Amino acid sequence: MTLDTEPRALESYTDVLVRLSVDPVLFTLIGDRLHVLLRRRTWQPFEGVWALPGVINPAGEQLKETMLRELNRLGLGDIWVEQLKTFDRPPQYADGALLAPGRDPRGRVISVAYFGLVPPTCHRVGGDGDAVAWMPVDDLPELAFDHAEIVRYALWRLRNKILYSAVAFQLLPPDFTLTQLQRVYELVLGERLDKRNFRRKVLDVGAVVETGSCTQQGTRRPARLYRFSQREFEFR
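Below the sequence we write its predicted structure tokens.
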């Protein structure tokens, strides 16, 4: 379609209002459980209901800039994050009657979701007036809009990505034990892993290197500390 050949086709869309929402799904580990960051809404729609800490994309600003600005406002400006998926479900009408509501009661709002991993040193989050909290992904409250669907998809994506990349290291401190690394995989995947096989895989591919230091665990035998070696770790 060009402006010269089909100008009326463009004119027919002048009354369509579409807004974009940028919704980050941020995961971290707290108390041996995987958590996601939520914010209690203090405005309509869904006032008082928990939701992802999203924000409407303003005119003239790129989506990623909007997302990074919101992360900075929450105190999370330096974390691993990537685009997840676009979620769009407009209301469905027939003969002027509403057959099925859209994902947002205010009208056509398309959500561009991102997901990120927050290290244990960055658990304190929130800006002025924010009612934010980390919630365990296996015990979430009712969420506004279609945010429960977005969280489920982000978790599915994370569980797949952790099998072919080194993304798990984003949930660890710079120096860690192999037990800590294995526990990250178990918490994300939701299953127990064989200790011997896991350590063999990690060490054989050179995913980690020893730091030369050990943990201080009182009367227990100190555990060796490792550091990510910047190689891709394919767990499958």
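Helices lie at 7-11, 63-73, 147-161, 178-189, 195-204.
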